[in-house]
Amino acid sequence: MGQEILPPSGGDDDHIQPVDLKAALEQRYLAYALSTIMHRALPDVRDGLKPVHRRIVYAMNEMGLRPNSAFRKCAKIVGEVMGNYHPHGDQSIYDALARLAQDFSQRYTLVNGQGNFGNIDGDSPAAMRYTESKMTAVSELLLEGIDQDAVDFRDTYDESNSEPVVLPGAFPNLLANGSSGIAVGMATSIPSHNAHELCDAALHLIKHPDATVEKLVEFIPGPDFPTGGIIIDNRDSIIESYRTGRGGFRVRAKWQTEDLGRGGYQIVITEIPFQVQKSRLIEKIAELLIARKLPLLEDIRDESAEDIRVVLVPKTRSVDPTILMESMFKLTELESRFPLNMNVLSMGRIPRVMALNEVLKEWLDHRREVLQRRSRFRLAAIDRRLEILSGLLVAYLNIDEVIRIIREEDEPKPVMMARWDLTDNQVEAILNMRLRALRKLEEFEIRKEFDELTNEKGEIEALLSSDDKQWQTVAWEIGEVKKKFAKATEVGRRRTQFADAPETDEEAVQQAMIEKEPITVVISEKGWIRALKGHIADTATLTFKEGDGLKIAFPAQTTDKILIVTTGGKAFTLGGDKLPGGRGHGEPLRIMVDMDNDQAVLTAFLHDPSRKQLIVSTAGNGFVVPEAELVANTRKGKQIMNVALPEETQLLVPVSGDHVAVVGENRKLLVFPLAQVPEMSRGKGVRLQRYKDGGISDVRCFAISDGLIWEDSAGRTFTKNKDELAEWLADRATAGRTVPKGFPRSGKFAG
């Protein structure tokens, strides 16, 4: 890659230079990356604008499109921006301009648009030849002092004009309107905030420069999105996001129930999360409805006009609205996460992720610098005017002599300069004076203006020499902005609310997302699983692959959890709705879960969290495990019983009653209290019965008061009561006695 490659020799080799390709690519890609970061994707922390937005606002100012002036066609504005400042496509400029006018995109719009500027459904704005716009009060604040040397200017791309490097920014625009963009190797994502709260936090920072993020969050509790919604993050996570400059906010739609009478109701959504297109959201919900993923929902209607009004109709009046909405939040964009990545251009040059207090501090420092520059500019203007006024006063005091010199001298200017020690500017002003100004009253006017300007000069000099006075003035300016955008005003009121997510039963929400239907679960000897629709009583009609047969079949619902336990002591969980359909022979279980090849299915059953199971290995070890512990949320499953080949898990029986009966392969029966078996979530277990050779045959839990019941191969039922079982009653881990007469030859309690 680093090797130089010379081009083939042509006739004109004089101007060909060999270039190292790797170095050239690195250099040019770096130049492109820096250009993207600095001049396109990241906003400046001081005015919160990217170059395209800054140029649009500045061009509108230059065109005189103040809030109180007439609207102008957007095509004219775009042409002005493109021709003078921003040499990019007209469509990209118009898109940026239109976004600044959208009240659902910008918390405080910078452009006042007239015409179709798009909507929350995702429709595009009308073409720029149809729409008109002008500045808003916010963009006027951002530009306040631009003609008073408040900021630096640089040459435009063709050097025929100049443009501001940054705007004076009397409005806290970066946080108030937010920003998002993707650069090279970095991105930015800042939500909008409430201007009133930002001003409060900034005023606190002026008084307490070392204020922590925790303290500032008392003033700024979180973002304030243009489209409202409800933030459900807790305070600690919000503080952490603002402290590090990275994080995110979970925003939910705002909803309420409307009573329809007779116990019926419907849910009405009035606010949706920021940057979610309403039409796309409704389409997605409708798709889920058709796919039967929202069994609690009957229908969705969009009844929006100017305001948002999306109506959800529940399946029945008995549906819990909270559970319905929780299932909606899980599956749709009614809940979305807005990322926070406060990656901005610090000092207009350095891209870095900043914390909340750093962003506000840098804005305040910028405001102070703007104040100093504007004050110096005014001071220079006062000095120039005072110079001229003092010259005019000299002329009034010596008016006859002035007139004589002008009438008699060929070159009156140098004569007057020498006679009264005047400057060029002063004499020029005297010579340009109108005869009308010679009236007596004018002298009083000049003296009055001279005194007023002298006073103002003293005040400005005092301001520039005192840090405290400068911060007081900055605070006063911020106070004026706060009044203009106070929460009491319509534009300033907080739109996004805060709430904790309601406590709901996770299980109920999960079930609310599955259509409840009866199924029959079928597992074959070789581990193939399928779910047939409906409850099938006769399993004899089921077909299997050659050499395979029925292992287990049981009725269930699609909302049920199916527990599968293997001979290796592992438990797996499958949702009834996730099982393959009944056509064909189903699918091998090994595809659906990570089952080892040397393990087989021991049993499968419906999960009942209130139940306990007795799990037993071939060697006769066992323990009681609560069924809730068998639930595994991953493909890997959960190891419940620790067994190593040739030993395997052999039996799993529901726990009931107060005694355990164990039969060994040696046809010896032992009965002992259930209390002697420990309850664990995982382990090897304890010995239930001792054998010289062989292992366990069967186990059963029962209540001693009901007696031990078994069936023989002929279907006859035998019962042994407590007294009759006396000789088999002993402690756990003893050998037991030979089974009573009539016990099945199979060694099982069920024939």
Automatic annotation (TrEMBL):
Entry-linked Pfam families: DNA_gyraseA_C, DNA_topoisoIV
Catalyzed reactions per annotation: ATP-dependent breakage, passage and rejoining of double-stranded DNA
GO biological process, one term: DNA topological change
Keyword annotations from UniProtKB, A to Z: Cell membrane, DNA-binding, Isomerase, Membrane, Topoisomerase
Record site: Transition state stabilizer: R129
Source taxon at top rank: Bacteria
UniProt cross-references to SUPFAM superfamilies, sorted A to Z: GyrA/ParC C-terminal domain-like, Type II DNA topoisomerase
Main location: membrane
Annotated positions for site Interaction with DNA: K50, H86, H88
Record domain Topo IIA-type catalytic: where: 42-506
Keyword Membrane: yes
GO cellular component: chromosome; cytoplasm; DNA topoisomerase type II (double strand cut, ATP-hydrolyzing) complex; extrinsic component of plasma membrane
Claim: Cell membrane is one of the keywords in the record: yes
GO molecular function terms noted in the UniProt entry: ATP binding; DNA binding; DNA topoisomerase type II (double strand cut, ATP-hydrolyzing) activity
Membrane topology of the entry: Peripheral membrane protein
Family: Belongs to the type II topoisomerase GyrA/ParC subunit family. ParC type 1 subfamily.
Record note on quaternary structure: Heterotetramer composed of ParC and ParE.
Stated role: Topoisomerase IV is essential for chromosome segregation. It relaxes supercoiled DNA. Performs the decatenation events required during the replication of a circular DNA molecule.
Name of the protein this chain belongs to: DNA topoisomerase 4 subunit A
Organism in which the protein naturally occurs: Rhizobium ruizarguesonis
Gene name as annotated: parC
